[in-house]
Structure prediction request, 533 residues.
Amino acid sequence: MFSVLTPNAAAFLAGIFGILLIASLIVFGLKRAHPEKDYDELTSRVNSWWVMAGVFAAAMALSPTLSLIFLAFVSFLALKEYLSLIPTRRADRRVLFWAYLTIPAQFYWVAIGWYGMFIIFIPVYLFMFLPMRMVLIGDTTGFLRAAGSLHWGLMLTVFNLSHMAFLLVLPLDVNPAGGAAGLVLFLMFLTQFNDVAQYVWGKLFGKHKIIPKVSPKKTWEGFLGGILTTTLAAWALAPYLTPLVGWEAPVAGLLIGLAGFVGDVNISALKRDLGIKDSGSLIPGHGGILDRVDSLTFTAPLFFHFLYYLHY
Amino acid sequence: MNHFLRLAFFALIARPIALIVLGLNLRHRERLPLNGPAIIAANHNSHLDTLVLLSLFPLRLLPKLRPVAAADYFTVNPLLAWFSLNVIGILPIKREAKGGADPLKPCEMALERGEILVLFPEGSRGEAEVMGRFKRGIAVLAARRPEVPVTPIFLHGLGKALPKDDPILVPFFCDVFVGEAMFGNPEQAVFMTELTTRMHALANELPRELVVEMSLRQEEN
Prediction:
């Protein structure tokens, strides 16, 4: 596991805070230029970014164990939010309790670097264990819906997100420039950057709706512009943070841009089905934790396997 | 009450449970009373209700917060009695008053001392996530002290996290919706209708599907 940030990773973290500083200054300037307009939403959005980036950076800089605990806690919050949103059966309380316990187990496999267990624990063992617990309780009304929705949520919030944590324990010698933290920073930054880029392109040039039934505000212009920006950013950043070379870097960016969009609308579809606007109110200006990690639930496993296949 | 134990319990155990293990979706925080005397009226589904309601207030108000609880339930077992009285700081009242004693007298005296009473007008926790009928005691109390604000608070999800019949706590985000303060009315029925209406209005702030689910359960009971 990594011990300290490499100079590149540290410089990149500093760069992220530089971007946030610029964002805060822009908001400050907007408020002064248009005192009549309401910028509360934007302000709390940027302030929340500061808090999230601060906590994340602190965990990454202080210790590897702390980084893993931080990522496990994000999974816990996401799973809790998911289970709070969906209808669950009273009878399944004990099963849900087991579902929560998979988080320490899954992140323990990551911590000891046991790839084989990490990759099958939830998709195989939990896939059989949780329905078995439900069967032992014996309530068959709504069994399929309960078993299916529980496993879907576990895959999304624990299995998929834990791929980000596994980036931290990959062999160090493959990526001396960025270190383990560099990989996480690359994925995390590009995923969030892609969200912002798609939003900005959509705001500026958005005309043609891309998926109006699920997410009426998303446009082709935002989608394509965002992906292009993310691909270029990945190309520029990859040599400093990752072992990706040549064509691999822009393709990683393309992958993150595409997967980020799909992960985002995937959660949008869930929310639409449940008849809610935000998944929660945990992060002021953003909504719930699922609203923030929606893209990551798709980009983390895809980026991980792309990288793992090519270099590890 | 043991103030030190109580502070330690709420700072180190109750708040982390309420804010980290569970997590609160708190709406209209600004409607909470800033000082006593005041009455909080909430629906009741779980033992966690009291911990969550007390965690909504800053710790400096803790000495003033008094959950009103039935003496016959909480003070029979000596260990539970010690914990309820000293750590949770309940104000025990006798539901079945003998010989014409006034069961609301301790509440009135607490309000006189400027305390914030936490009341569950349903009386008991009842079926998880089902709002039972409100008892009139609160209307009597509010009518006797018409200057004291009564703040309705709607709780949702705690009955899922720790229901009456299961000792295992399962984490869920819980909704806490604070209503606007109201005041006592000499006509008890008017007060009760108003309180019930406000509580249901708060419940209707939940997402559509949950409101439907709750009313279905309500009908089953």
User: Anything to note?
Assistant: Chain B has a mean pLDDT of 86. The interface with chain A takes residues 23, 25-27, 128, 157, 160, 163, 166, 168, 170-174, 207-209, 213 of chain B (CB under 8 Å).
